[in-house]
Design a protein that fits this description.
It is a single chain. This protein is an alpha/beta fold. The chain folds into two domains: about 120 residues, Response regulator (Rossmann fold, 3-Layer(aba) Sandwich), CATH 3.40.50; about 90 residues, Winged helix-like DNA-binding domain superfamily/Winged helix DNA-binding domain (Arc Repressor Mutant, subunit A). The protein has ten helices and five strands; from the N terminus they run βαβαβαβαβαααααα. A five-stranded parallel sheet has the order 2-1-3-4-5, sandwiched between helices. Helix 7 crosses helix 9. It is globular, with a radius of gyration of 18 Å. It comes from Cellulomonas xiejunii. Pfam families: GerE, Response_reg. This is Response regulator transcription factor.
Amino acid sequence: MTTVLLVDDQPLLRMGFRLVVDTEPDLEVVGEASDGRVALEQVAALAPDVVLMDIRMPGMDGIEATRRVVAEHPASRVLVLTTFDVDDLAFAALRAGASGFLLKSARPDELVDAIRTVAAGTSVVAPRVLRRMLDLFAGHLPAGGDVPTAGDPHPRLAALTPRELDVLRLIAGGASNSEIAAELFVSETTVKTHVGNVFAKLGARDRVQVVIIAYECGLAAGGRETVR
């Protein structure tokens, strides 16, 4: 059973989400919160698998709440709710550690599928959508300096091997595992091993976090960096 905490300052929206989630046999709403501070208390008390988090709330907003949940309760994954598909606040929530975002206008089946996906440890943002967000909000990222190379990597990437840097560049460009395998002329099994190593060395939980780290380190500025 996947447990869900609903966080939104609008009671009617919480009621609607609860009706959708509780109809699924494998999902259960275990609590609700109307702002980020209450959400943190509920996460500490209930340890939900997934936190469905609104961004715009009075008091502590969803961005700060997401940052705190990820830091203090890493077993709980955050799926943020947004009104627009390219939203600077949704982007900030992803940088804070959310595993994906979902439009408030999403269909019921999209909502439950997203919850299951996040609970399984996968992100709910297509890499190419994330690239679009990064391109639009690149000014919010810290300057990455010169694009790193295998011989002179950014300090945060120093632990990666040259091949892992290649894999990271391709992930940041929106490539799937099969596309990476074709580009590097290796098997998908080998790619999965490299991807796992990249995640572990960067301390990233999913592809969303890996792509953001790559941009922050200047590895894929503007989403156009390719393997040479």
